[in-house]
């Protein structure tokens, strides 16, 4: 992440700014632009979101969104993948998905990019957990490892290839091993 | 950390190799050399170890060691600071400190270097916790943050300047805030 401004804006002022590419996040009064996505990040993001949806969206249990701005608890963040329980997805009057998501995801997934501050990303996971998120994944493609953060519980380290990754209860039918996850890098 | 060899050695073979500078660690059959220490890392390491010792060593409760090789559970690691309870410090027949520490520290402290894999460092903390270490600190100078890992408990994030850093019970008289810790970078 690159800190692009030392100027402190309010959250309201930040939200009025035009979107950037890659997206910018608003954290503790600072605007921090996400890194330009690269191959490993993109491959995992592109495969994982539909893999989750194939299990939870078809049953209207939940839905995974890539690069969705979520604004809550004084921050505006853009998780790589944010999964929301079906009933918590904000809707327009016509029933369509709303544009503004002013709530924490139920499951948040971050994929580490080279040179990205792992501490900054982890802090976003902590922020989500403090606001009701059931689980946060931090995927490190270089180390072929996943950290799973749960509220009030020890952090889980998943790096055994055949280990099943922990998932939130609502996604219990979604079954993926560490090897499955990183095999997307080899396709 | 730079992985310097793809050749798989046994732990016994690794321990017969000459020491390197910076030190090399043996993790899952791989030899990984620690990064060359830089200013922030050195400043914190040099101040923190004696600060801990000024509280725990004078009372013969425990003792902090910088850059001490600890070999246990199939790995040989060199924490930036390893703190051992007084009675667990290996001794020679004459009572002096032994050279070989074949046990996990009671408190392990890692200071992140630029370009070092935070996941690799965190995995070393997990390895320690699995072998009896009471607490592991991961200090990120760039983000002025500390993650405290405890067995069977949620990971703690400490980034509020006035927050007291959590310490193991045996070091309860050692009192340090986040701001105190990072103020060593400004001296």
Tell me the distance between the termini of chain A.
27 Å
Q: Which outline of chain A best applies?
A: globular
Instruction: Provide the domain count of chain A.
Output: 1
**Helix content bin of chain A:** 10-25%
CATH architecture of chain A: Alpha-Beta Complex
Uncertain stretches of 5 or more adjacent residues of chain A: none
- Main β-sheet, spatial strand arrangement of chain A: 4-7-8-9-10-11
CATH first level of chain A: Alpha Beta
Find the count of extended strands of chain A (DSSP E, 2+ residues): 11
Number of helices of chain A: 4
Order of helices and strands of chain A: EHEEHEEEEEHEEEH
Written account of the structure:
Two copies of one chain form a homodimer. With 187 residues, chain A is of the alpha+beta class. Chain A has one domain (36-186): tt1808, chain A, CATH 3.90.1570. Helix content of chain A is 23%, strand content 25%. The first copy, chain A, has four helices and eleven strands, in the order βαββαβββββαβββα. Chain A has helices at 11-16, 39-56, 118-130, 178-183, and strands spanning 2-5, 24-27, 30-33, 62-66, 70-72, 75-77, 81-85, 107-111, 135-140, 145-149, 156-158. In chain A, strands 4-7-8-9-10-11 form a six-stranded mixed β-sheet, sandwiched between helices. In chain A, a hairpin with a 4-residue loop joins strand 9 and strand 10. The mean pLDDT of chain A is 94. At the A-B interface, helix 3 and strand 10 of A face helix 3 and strand 10 of B.
């Amino acid at each position: 992440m690159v800190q692009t401004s030392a100027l402190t804006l309010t959250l309201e002022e930040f939200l009025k700014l035009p979107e950037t590419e890659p997206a910018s996040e608003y954290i503790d009064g600072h605007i921090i632009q996400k890194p330009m996505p690269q191959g490993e990040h993109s491959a995992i993001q592109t495969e994982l979101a539909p893999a989750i949806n194939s299990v939870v969206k078809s049953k209207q249990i939940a839905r995974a969104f890539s690069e969705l701005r979520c604004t809550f608890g004084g921050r505006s963040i853009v998780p790589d993948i944010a999964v929301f329980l079906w009933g918590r997805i904000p809707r327009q009057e016509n029933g369509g998905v709303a544009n503004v998501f002013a709530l924490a995801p139920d499951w948040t997934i971050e994929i580490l990019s080279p040179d990205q501050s792992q501490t900054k990303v982890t802090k976003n996971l902590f922020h989500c957990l403090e606001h009701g998120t059931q689980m946060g994944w931090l995927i490190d493609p270089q180390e072929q490892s996943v950290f799973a953060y749960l509220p009030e519980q020890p952090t889980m380290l998943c790096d055994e290839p055949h280990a099943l990754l922990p998932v939130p209860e609502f996604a219990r039918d979604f079954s993926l091993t560490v090897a499955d996850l990183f095999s997307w890098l080899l396709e």
